[in-house]
């Protein structure tokens, strides 16, 4: 190079010379760093690519280099070439980890803030990753619902969760407006029944709202909560004249719009 010696070397020693790269044209690193005039690109696993030095290293120091995955032309799905067990990249795939390609979750600019695409995950297999021994960072909370995660959560986000529809015939009218915490106040799988004596019938929750004057047996004789606990009590068929023991129930359920119980 046609530079004065003291542009790099100090006046007391030639050791520790540091070249000022400020005027070097981008992409021309190999003009000097070819192994003859200056040290060339290291022949190690971390440098098995064709990108110019200044795509990762800046002109003031070679330390703290950051690989540019876009300019270097990294082929999608080839992350393990460098980030695998025998690859040259310092950042390895954590163990345990997702078995797919890195770029399924991470973008080419940063590994922070990765978001897994669940669209191709087989329904019902959530605990493969989110279980106790799974690879996902997000585990199933304890205590929690014992069914599969995707019965409540979608494949794109865990919040907000989908509204849970109870499959029991007792709660057919409660699949829209009710929130989980309306019944599951302690965040367990067991609901807090206001009137546990009558669970799991309608009266288990609604006994305190029962209105005797809305439920007449015959004349002035009224039904009790116990008789109509599952909203299916008969109006006329009893075992004796006291009208206290039902012998046969109606076929249809009590309608929630009747204004009574």
Taking the sheet with the most strands, its summary is:
2 strands, antiparallel
Structural class: little secondary structure
**How are the strands of the largest sheet arranged?**
1-2
Computed Rg: 36 Å
Mean of pLDDT:
68
- Kindly report the oligomeric state of this protein: single chain
**What is the 3D shape?**
rod-shaped
Number of helices: 4
Helix fraction? under 10%
- Poorly predicted ranges: 254-261
Query: Could you give the order of the helices and strands?
Result: HHHHEE
Strand content bin: under 5%
Description:
Among the domains are: 1-93, no CATH class; 196-261, no CATH class. By secondary structure, it is largely without helices or strands. 6% of the residues lie in helices and 2% in strands. The chain has a two-stranded antiparallel ribbon. The radius of gyration is 36 Å and the shape is rod-shaped. It is built from four helices and two strands, in the order H-H-H-H-E-E.
What are the defining features of this structure?
261 residues, little secondary structure, two-stranded antiparallel sheet, 4 helices, 2 strands, disordered C terminus
Task: Please provide a brief summary of the model.
This protein has about 260 residues and is low in regular secondary structure.
Topology (SSEs and partners):
Elements: H1 80-83, H2 127-130, H3 180-183, H4 203-206, E1 216-218, E2 221-222
Antiparallel strand pairs: 1-2
């Amino acid at each position: 190079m046609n530079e004065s010696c003291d542009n790099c070397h100090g006046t007391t020693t030639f050791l520790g010379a540091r070249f000022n790269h400020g005027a070097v044209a981008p992409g021309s690193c190999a003009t000097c760093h070819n192994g003859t005039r200056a040290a060339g690109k290291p022949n190690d696993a971390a440098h098995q690519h064709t990108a110019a030095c200044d795509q990762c290293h800046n002109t003031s120091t070679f330390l703290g280099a950051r690989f540019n995955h876009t300019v270097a032309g990294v082929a999608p799905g080839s992350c393990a070439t460098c980030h695998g067990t025998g690859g040259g990249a310092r950042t390895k795939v954590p163990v345990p980890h997702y078995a797919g390609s890195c770029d399924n979750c991470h973008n080419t600019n940063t590994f922070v803030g990765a978001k897994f695409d669940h669209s191709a995950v087989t329904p019902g297999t959530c605990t493969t990753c989110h279980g106790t021994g799974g690879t996902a960072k997000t585990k199933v909370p304890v205590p929690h619902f014992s069914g599969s995660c995707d019965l409540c959560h979608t494949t794109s986000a865990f919040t907000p969760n989908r509204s849970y529809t109870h499959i029991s015939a007792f709660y057919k009218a409660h699949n829209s407006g009710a929130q989980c915490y309306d019944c599951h106040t302690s965040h367990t799988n067991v609901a807090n029944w206001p009137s546990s004596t009558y669970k799991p019938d309608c009266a288990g929750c609604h006994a305190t709202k029962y209105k005797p004057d809305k439920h007449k047996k015959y004349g002035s004789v009224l039904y009790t909560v116990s008789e109509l606990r599952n909203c299916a009590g008969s109006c006329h068929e009893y075992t004796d004249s006291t009208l206290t023991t039902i012998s046969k129930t109606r076929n249809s359920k009590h309608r929630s719009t009747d204004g009574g119980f």
